[in-house]
Here is the input.
Amino acid sequence: MLDRILTKLPARNDPDLLVGPSTFDDAGVYRVSDSLALVLTVDFFTPIVDDAHDFGRIAATNSLSDVYAMGGTPVTALNVVAFPDDKLPDHVLADILQGSAAVCEEAGVAIAGGHSVSDEELKFGLAVTGILDPGDGVLSNAGARPGDVLLLTKPLGTGLVANAMMNDAADDDWVRASTESMTRLNRVASELARAHNAHAVTDITGFGLLGHARELALASRVTARFSAEALPALPGALEVASSGSFFSGGEHKNRAFVERFAQIETSIPERLRRLAVDPQTSGGLLLALAPRDADMFSAAIAERGERAWRVGEIVERGRFLLALTR
Here is the structure.
């Protein structure tokens, strides 16, 4: 939808707007001085888990991720709340806000206030402001180069697990693993992306792996080629994907959209096709790095107790923006 809408808006030529909507990056970046730029983003959504406290944690982690994807440090946040106050008791909102506050405290982010409206459907998220030094460069999705390695820092499948959970078909272990992934900050990956000269970075959220990779490939004028069998999956995700059920509207939309831009080998199993377009919540970072830097990044993130998976590579722009091979 935004592809159609943004082209109709007037272009702004403010030289201090370092990153705006044209590249579909994760956040905007505005230069305040030679040594300070603001990283600006907002995100909110409906509950993806049953526990209100966990929902607050997940929503906050997801919102902060956009700043990390740009190489920034989040510093302040505003709560964005739509709450059905005639349907849910006050303690539900209190639990959500407490969960969010816990994540913000972990990230060193000050909650400066917020805005709430009464709504038929519960939604929650944060408007986040981060900072970075523009002299150090901005991590963007527009710098990937042919020959780069593509690394992913969290496994996929949060949407598949969530849909199974909503249908009482998810094991408790699946839900716990998915919640742990969705509440883990992308701070370490962001720090290491800058330290190891990442050429392009984006975080994987609602458009799925291929949807966000399409934006990276388009902005960078390259083709992103993925190995389907190298894609990491959360516990239970492939079982759900193999079941032939628990489809979401987001998954259908993602698949219909990316198939216009992707060359997909016919031999790829359906479960891996579903995983590649599964809408993620608070997913990991997708990074394009030179091969040697990718190896160093992988070793460094392992030393910090996390992991990166090699999922593909960047090649010269071909007929398609994306390729999915065995």
